[in-house]
Amino acid sequence: MSRQDIPPSSAPYANHGRTRAAWILVAGVIVGFGVGVIGLTTAHQWLVYAGIGIVGIAVGAGWALRALGHGQPVPPSRDIRVDGT
Q1: How confident is the model at residue 5 (pLDDT cuts 50, 70, 90)?
Q2: Which residues, at least 6 apart from 63, have a Cβ–Cβ distance to it below 8 Å?
Q3: Distance from the CA of 15 to the CA of which of 38, 43, 45, 60 falls in 20 to 30 A?
Q4: Are the CB atoms for 65 and 20 separated by under 8 Å?
Q5: What span, in angstroms and rounded, lies between the C-alpha atoms of 36 and 34?
Q6: 72 with 17: CB under 8 angstroms?
């Protein structure tokens, strides 16, 4: 058996990031930026801050959903040594 016949130790993820955590994060960021842009164009400062808050909540929700298992799995850490071995 040659080295080329050995399968990789772990297959790459096939979902391309299409997870609940990713969709919630992207939707929340789009809505937050939309609210912030409306606030900027209409000179309503509270809308700008509301948009910033929505983006922050969306990032937190995406992170929490990933931690709960609804997102892309965290790849195993690689043991990198300082001496290069």
Answers
A1: low
A2: 21
A3: 60
A4: yes
A5: 5
A6: yes
Residue from 26, 51, 27 nearest 37 by CA:
51
- Per the listing, tokens 């997102």 go with 71
Q: Which tokens hold the place of 12?
A: 């790459």
Does this model's pTM top 0.90?
no
Q: Quote the DSSP letter at residue 16.
A: T
Structure-block tokens of residue 48: 């700008």
- Name the average pLDDT for the chain: 83
Show the tokens assigned to 13.
Answer: 């993820």
Dmax (CA) for the chain in angstroms is 69
Alpha carbons 25 and 31: distance in angstroms, whole number? 10
How many CB atoms neighbour CB 13 within 10 A? Answer: 11
